[in-house]
């Protein structure tokens, strides 16, 4: 066993003391010169740091999010406690969930050695997360040794939504998930669907061959190389609401008409998903894990080049894609806001 750091408290205090900056780690979704966005199979090798105008993203598989991490995890745990239906498993997925748990705990311990630790002897493990206070012994494959299933246990430790895909009869099926921050979809509705059924509502995707290419890519995903993809949308839900799933539609569905009536475009959130594809070593199941980042349009004003680019992309976006993404009704106002002059006390440019 590797000895645990004698004084993790200091490391945790230093980790939590860093000021929260929602732009610093945001995976800016557009290449520098892009002004017209269309769907594509935009996948790249993961764990490669990408500098941006505001900071950097993508160095690690899991981005804890600095001082925001405990708040994010409290929100995740509150939702899981209130709605057990956010964790869904089709029969036969238990081993893949253990595979996922072990892969991620090992990765976290290697990436954040001052904050997290995994001790291993044979099939016995002890997981310690000094930020959240988790201290859990378990035996791999023995669900009775964890307080909940391995998929949910991991979901309570990492900010990512966790989705597992397996191949059957040549098709990829979404057969397990722990999802609390879905952008207008529902894990209990989608679980068990194949790639074509899931992506049926997305305009152009299957018709233009993108679903087929995405499926081919995932079927051929090698075991030794993790890939990632970035996706984006706008969210008019107020105050950084992560849970805009269909389950919560009655709660956030009123936010959009209310915002259209009242204005307040600076509170609209740019919502970016960083998705990681890992082929798990024991079972060959593939992950589609989604880490959601958000920054308000008010925050984006600190980077005028981003405001200009986002305005151009939203203005040019075809109506069907804007409607699917849910902002067709207010996109002109957002473009106007992004192009309006900074108020006199506005922040300095980056
Ligand atoms: C390279 C692989 C993939 C690509 C290129 C891709 C592409 C897309 C795109 C373009 C959208 C629309 C998003 C938007 O406009 O905001 C979407 C939605 C979605 N994707 Fe994928 N996807 C991939 C893999 C997967 C996998 C493996 C899963 C499931 C495990 C998945 C689940 C979903 C879900 C649940 C939605 C929302 C659908 C809805 O609105 O009902 N995707 N995907």
Task: Characterise this structure.
With 350 residues, this protein is an alpha+beta fold. It contains 13 helices and 13 strands. Strands 1-10-11-13 form a four-stranded antiparallel beta sheet. The longest helix has 18 residues. The radius of gyration is 20 Å and the shape is globular. It starts with 7 loop residues before the first helix and ends in an 11-residue tail after the last helix. The relative contact order is 0.15. The site of protoporphyrin IX containing FE has 23 residues, from strand 8, helix 7, strand 10 and helix 12.
**Helix count from the secondary structure assignment:** 13
What is the global morphology?
A: globular
Low-confidence stretches: none
Q: What are the bound molecules?
A: protoporphyrin IX containing FE
Distance, first to last CA: 45 Å
Strand order of the largest sheet: 1-10-11-13
Structural class, from secondary structure content?
Answer: alpha+beta
Indicate the proportion of strand residues.
15-25%
- What is the count of β-strands? 13
Helix content: 25-40%
Instruction: Give the SSE order as H and E letters.
Output: HEEEHEHEEEHEEHHHEHHEEEHHHH
Mean pLDDT: 94
Calculate Rg over CA atoms: 20 Å
Q: How would a crystallographer describe the biggest sheet?
A: 4 strands, antiparallel
